[in-house]
Structure formats: structure tokens, C-alpha cells
Amino acid sequence: MSKFAIMGHGVVGSGTAELFLMNKELIKERQGIDLELGYILDIRDFPDLPYSDKFTKDINDILNDDEVTVVAEVMGGVNPAFEFVTKCLERGKSVCTSNKELVAKKGAELLKTAKEHNCNFMFEASTGGAIPVLRPMHTCLAANEITAVAGILNGTTNFILTKMIDENMAFDEALKTAQELGYAEKDPTADIEGHDACRKICILASLAYGKHVYPDWVHTEGITKLTSEDAAYASENGYAIKLIGSVEKNGDKVIPLVAPRFVPSSCQLYSVSDVFNAIMVYGNGFDEVMFYGKGAGKLPTASAVMGDVIDCAKKHGTDMSQFWEDSADNSFIADYTTEVSARYFRMSGADKSQIKDVFGDVRFITRKGAPDDETAFITHADEYGIIEEKASRLTGTILGSVRIY
Ligand code: HSE
Hints:
The structure is a single chain. With 405 residues, the protein is of the alpha/beta class. The protein folds into 3 domains: 2-130 and 299-314, NAD(P)-binding Rossmann-like Domain (Rossmann fold); 136-293, Dihydrodipicolinate Reductase, domain 2; 341-404, Alpha-Beta Plaits, CATH 3.30.70. The protein is 35% helix and 25% strand. The strands form 3 sheets. Strands 7, 8, 9, 10, 11, 12, 14, 15, 16 and 18 form a 10-stranded mixed sheet that branches. A hairpin with a 2-residue loop joins strand 9 and strand 10. The longest helix is centred in the first third of the chain and has 21 residues, at 11-31. It is elongated, with a radius of gyration of 23 Å. The mean pLDDT is 97. The structure holds L-homoserine. Residues 129, 154-156, 183-185, 191, 196, 295-296 line the site of L-homoserine.
């Protein structure tokens, strides 16, 4: 028998208990491990639940029970999660978390603590919800150099963008629906301003390149500047708009970035809709793979938490080697203005011949019902900074500008 505990009984915590109790026998039969839920830590009371006897308000109950070998941390936020996770690891208890803020800000430190105490700090649920991506990247793709990772990492914004483009739904209404479905963060700013996707690309980048990439080092743009006019240009010209978190090698540096992009219909990310996430990983041996699934929600996220819990319980006392070093500084991060992509522009009062003189052979695009003085075009790929400098030479007003995937 192997005991585990859950810290936090919110959306993901209650989902973790529910999924485990639903499939307990199956887990025993298939995985050969007799898991028991020992404790659930929460400051609130839940007297009506069938597992109400599991609740405690005191973390010492978990820390002092030597039978507990694994703890699921699903509280969210850095405090007190960091303190509680550290204490568990220092007692040799592996911790499995869905808390991307904790991993993105404190991952290197917690991985070090886990290593020092011969246990594991796992966080599959922190990135891509239900999607197995971190462990496959670390194990199945281990023979390769990862050249780039790029994906739709936030379910809430993908849900909003899908509703805006496919159903012409207003931004606020789509956000409200996402919140009601339990996809959004407590403060939806983290979703719509790209901070949530930023944390996830930090985790992917840190794992892919072995050094901690901190959120402050990542240029991050959200989706709040996108307009229905930009959405119309995208959908009427064979593109979807997606918030893309990416990191790519650039010589001996990496460029992490979060920004909305026009994704062409030829790209597999184009048809990733609603709350689904997808992550493309590029490498020098396997070329490219895509990981796809539900990126948010109660049971999908719980599924990834429980996958880690089961693995940690089975391999108690084994170093699973998913690790990265802390970074002394950000000298390995290249400036985001050196990232190369094509760009969509929407302008008023522009001069088409001047646009061609400055950018060369751009592609002009149209939308139904556009005012006469509106011009939209797509440039060739170039460094962001170079395109910015060229755009600053144009007469007229830039109303919208989005990178192309
Ligand atoms: N708010 C997050 C999202 C939850 O929408 O993707 C899952 O991390």
C-alpha cells in the first residue's frame, strides 16, 4: 500500500480526488500499485463529501505520516505552496504539481531540493493540462537536440479566440463562458495578457535547454489588442489567430516569446480549437511531433496530476532525472527583436506604393466591409526589429500588427 496526499481542494484538487476514487481499482489492477488517498489539506470544511474524513487543516499531518510518499500540490500561487512543497520534499516525499506559477518561478530551487532528498518534483499538469508533453519530451525525445517548441498553451484564450472567429462572439462574453467552465485563472488577466502561457513556455524552455528561464525574461504579449477587424482579416484569408508560446534556438542562445499569431491553414495548430492545447516540438533527429489534448479543466488536469502521482509512487526512491539548473543570469536569452517571422499589418491612410518600396513584394489582403482607406498586408519574414524599423517609415496609422506563424 502506498499513501498520497492532496494539498488544495479547488477545481483541480477536487478533480484529483474524484478521478482517483473513480479509477482506484483500475489503477491497482493496471499499474500494480495499491494507492490510498491519505489526506486532503484545505482550510475549508467539506462535510458533505463521501471522503470528508480525509480533510485536515494541518500540513504536519501529511509531513509526519511516513506512509505518505507522494503529495499532489494543487493549491496554485507561490505562497504558501512553495513553503509546503519544500517541506514535503525535505521529508523525502515526492511532489506532483499543476501549479505553473510555482514551477516557472521556483522550479530550479525545488528540483534541487528534491534531488538532495532523493525524491522527485514532477509537474506534467502544469503545462498543457491533460497532455503528456514534459515527460515524453524529456524521455522519448532524449536522443535529440530540441531546436524549437511552439504551441497553444492557454485554453482560455484559445476558447475566446475560437468563439470570436467562428461564432462572432464578443470578447467579454467568451471570457465569461470560459470562466464559468472553470478554464480561466482566478484573475483572468493572467490568461488574456499571456502570463499563463508565459509560465508554461518557461517550463518547456527550461526543460528543453536545461537552464531555468524566468518569466521576467520572456517578452509577452496577450490577446487584448486584437480586434474583430483583425479576426476578419485572418478568417477571410485562410488564417486562425492563436496565442503562441514559443522558444527556439538561435546560435548558442534561445528566444522565448509569447504573442498572438496568424496561423495558416496549412499548419496543424490552425485547427486546434476551443479549450484544446497543442504543442509542436522540433528536434534534430525526429523533425517534429505534435502533442494535443485538453489544456484546462477539472478532470483533464487531474489526469496529469494523477499520472505523476502514480509514477512517483511506483518509483519511490528513484531519481526520475527530470531536472534543470538554476541560471545565474539571462545572458543565454536572445533579444526578442531578433526573432524572425512574417507580419500582418492593418493600416489607415496608407500608401500602397510606399509599402512596396519599403517592404518589397508584400501580399495585400482584403476583408468584407472594410472602409476605403483601410489597407492590410503581409510582409516577408524578417527580424522583428527590422520590420519595426521599416514600418516606422510608412505614412498612415498602424491599426493592427500580428506575427505570422
Ligand atoms: N487558465 C489556464 C488555461 C488553465 O486556460 O489554460 C490551465 O493551465
